[in-house]
Amino acid sequence: MKIIYKVLSLLFSVLGGLLAGVLFKQAWKLAAGEDDAPDADDPDRSWREVLIAAAIQGAIFALVKAATQRAGAQAVRRTTGRWPADED
To answer: Is 46 exposed, middle or buried (0-12, 13-18, 19+ CB in 10 A)?
Structure first.
């Protein structure tokens, strides 16, 4: 069961990363009114713009990661009656 959980966790992590990327792009569009967030090496962008974009992106990715991991663990508990970390 532990191997199945790890494989599914990896799959959901990849899907979560894709979802987080889409959410960040939409959030940046709303926050800055621009289609693309600034790259750290873009000489035409200020430190402030780059760091704000990075902070928003990091928060969204962390939120999606935590949500997908938690949902996966709860699904395992509903299915098996045990929390995945207890499977060691």
So the answer is: exposed
pTM: 0.81
Number of C-alpha atoms within 13 angstroms, CB side, residue 45?
17
What is the signed CA dihedral for 38, 41, 43, 44, rounded to 10 degrees?
Answer: -10
Query: Are 65 and 23 a contacting pair, CB within 8 Å?
Result: no
Distance CA 31, CA 56 (A): 10
The residue assigned the tokens 């990715």 is 61
- What pLDDT is recorded for position 81? 87
Could you tell me the pLDDT band of residue 87, with boundaries at 50, 70 and 90? low
Domain boundaries, the chain: 2-87
